[in-house]
Write a structure and sequence with these properties.
CATH topology of the largest domain: Rossmann fold
Number of domains: 2
Number of helices: 10
Strand content: 15-25%
Number of strands: 14
Radius of gyration: 21 Å
Distance between the termini: 39 Å
Helix content: 25-40%
Strand order of the largest sheet: 2-1-3-4-5-6-9-10
Order of helices and strands: EHHEHEHEHEEEEEEEHEHEHEHH
CATH class of the largest domain: Alpha Beta
CATH superfamily of the largest domain: L-asparaginase, N-terminal domain
């Protein structure tokens, strides 16, 4: 049996839509329409390879990934929290376009009481190359396994297990698009080949943020730098009432000179500015000392977010602000 615990485990499956729920028909082509039970009917391998697994089926939404907002993520977190008491693991199907953001959101607010596993599909169920079935079987096996206890929210795709805090979608179409470019996967799984979930390492830099289920999520802007950029986007964000700004800077955390004025204005208004990198991998740090470089940004009071993508840094800053964390306490969150 692929997982020694799978036979008696209670796994709650939560369906939110995405490509795994896409089914072509005359009414709707290439849009999510399948319910949870309709998807499960297409995956008899769950019963075959994980016999005795006790599945609970919950339909949360039938939305494509780009339609999932942070407010919906907060509602989903409350939905999942209500399932923790009566589940040994939770599997969430999700559109791949925003999967890493939603998974990281839940990782921050749910904690690690039981495994919460995100999965999905790069091909619709009508495609001969449909990968959703195997991904769903593998996700159930990981959720039911003891190998990934106390590791927070996970993403299982293409036979790999990733930490929500580390994973990103690296290719628009490939089945193995989900990668953890800095640290690699946490483990592997291939249920259909009788390979049980295997843990390789522990996740890095995890944390928990406590926010209320009815919290107001603030407006946090994400801005990507480019050659010759000025402060126009920063001025617009501040005028629109941004409570925080995340910058995907160049390299290790540097910006064009024209951007500095916008950052200075934000800091004068006590708006936190978090620095990530537009590079796929690598840390950010205050290393260079020229105009717009990391050391100048550090002097302006910017916060550096090592090994965290811009979209995830935005989620983290949004939740931290909603939790009322500010000043040195906010800065300390990014150093943990």
């Amino acid at each position: 049996m692929p997982s020694e615990n799978a036979g008696s485990a209670r796994v709650a499956t939560v369906f939110t839509g995405g490509t795994i729920a896409v089914s072509a028909n005359k009414v709707a082509k290439n849009v999510p329409v399948l319910s949870g039970r309709e998807i499960l009917e297409r995956v008899p391998e769950i019963a075959q390879y994980l016999p005795g697994l006790k599945l609970q089926v919950h339909d949360f939404a039938t939305l494509p990934g780009p339609h999932i907002s942070p407010e919906m993520m907060l509602t989903l977190a409350s939905f999942v929290r209500a399932l923790l008491e009566h589940s040994d693991g939770i599997v969430i199907t999700h559109g791949t376009d925003s999967m890493e953001e939603c998974a990281y959101f839940l990782d921050l607010v749910i904690g690690d009481r039981i495994p919460v596993v995100f999965t999905g599909s790069m091909h619709p169920a009508t495609d001969a190359a449909w990968d959703g079935g195997q991904n769903l079987v593998d996700a159930c096996a990981v959720a039911a396994s003891g190998a990934f206890q106390k590791m927070g929210t996970l993403v299982v795709m293409a036979g790999q297990v990733h930490a929500a805090s580390e994973v990103t979608k690296s290719h628009t179409m490939k089945d193995d698009t989900f990668r953890s470019p800095d640290f690699g996967p946490l483990g592997t799984v291939n249920t259909l080949k009788l390979d049980a979930p295997k843990r390789i390492r522990e996740p890095h830099r995890r944390m928990n943020l406590s926010i209320g289920e009815d919290a107001d999520l603030p407006y946090v802007e994400l801005i990507k730098t480019y050659s010759g950029m000025d402060d126009m986007l920063f001025v617009a964000a501040l005028k629109a009432g941004a409570s925080g700004i995340v910058i995907e800077a160049m390299g290790q955390g540097n910006v064009p000179p024209g951007v500095v004025n916008g950052i200075s204005r934000a800091r004068e208004m006590n708006v936190p500015v978090v620095i990530t990198t537009r590079c796929l991998a690598g840390p950010v740090r205050p290393y260079y000392a020229y105009e717009g470089a990391g050391r100048e940004l550090e002097k302006l009071g910017c916060i550096f977010a090592p090994y965290l993508s811009g979209p995830k840094a935005r989620i983290k800053l949004m939740l931290a602000t909603a939790a009322g964390i500010e000043g040195e306490a906010l800065r300390a969150l990014w150093e943990a």
